[in-house]
Design brief:
- The chain is an all-alpha fold.
- It contains nine helices and no strands.
- The N and C termini lie far apart (58 Å).
């Protein structure tokens, strides 16, 4: 049974969706600036990346998690059938599993009796210990939705200065600088949140995210600049 939706359970999807959105959109902006494209082209390319890449990423996430869930349920139905129709063989498999864990004698037989006295517990044990499969508690649809929303929301940050140029009367020669500043801050936040998922040091998560984002943007800028001069 899937748990009730709780946002804190989907921090991983939010982090990776936001990281991909900010990195790819910033790369598009940097490449467009390097190619000396018009502001309208930068905005169009940026939003096209947000909508298309974000949708592609979320669909990929959904299909991947849905296939994993379907595969789990298929194998679970097989185990349920085997428990119902060949219980002695399945009981022996439980015995062998716990014998390999170091249990022997009366204790081993007691464990086998307890586990096989409840069908759900029996099947759960077979799924986990024999097939090494665990049911995903999170909804594939919710995972895809969080990924897409994060991709869009965080991915908008590199475009912020360009979209709000007229609202705040931002000089054109400062647009890219502001985009770099705001995107770097976004990388810092995403990098920090990533450490919550990966359980690593905060400075390491932030440094990795900023490095990846800056590297992608630098490469895009150089390629855009080179192609603009070439053509």
């Amino acid at each position: 049974m899937q748990q009730k939706f709780r946002l804190q359970d989907y921090i991983g999807e939010f982090v990776y969706g936001g990281m991909d959105g900010s990195v790819t959109t910033f790369a598009v902006v940097a490449g467009s600036v390097g190619a000396d494209m018009d502001l309208s082209v930068i905005i169009i390319l940026g939003f096209a990346n947000l909508i298309a890449d974000g949708f592609s990423m979320s669909v990929g996430s959904y299909l991947s998690k849905k296939s994993e869930s379907d595969n789990y349920e298929k194998h679970r139905r097989v185990e349920e059938w085997e428990v119902d129709n060949i219980p002695e063989l399945e009981r022996e498999e439980i015995r062998q599993i716990y014998l390999a864990k170091g249990f022997k004698g009366e204790l081993l037989e007691e464990i086998v009796t307890v586990i096989t006295s409840d069908k759900q517990r029996w099947v759960d044990t077979m799924m986990k210990d024999e097939l090494e499969m665990v049911r995903e508690s999170k909804s594939p649809l919710a995972m895809a939705a969080v990924t897409y929303v994060s991709f869009i929301v965080i991915g908008l940050i590199p475009l912020g200065s360009y979209v709000l140029k007229d609202v705040f009367a931002i000089p054109q020669n400062r647009l890219f600088m502001l985009s770099c500043l705001f995107t770097t801050l976004a990388f810092v936040v995403i990098g920090y949140l990533k450490t919550y998922v990966t359980q690593t040091r905060a400075w390491k998560g932030i440094a990795e995210t900023v490095f990846l984002g800056v590297t992608a943007a630098a490469l895009s800028y150089m390629v855009g600049s080179w192609l603009e001069k070439l053509f």
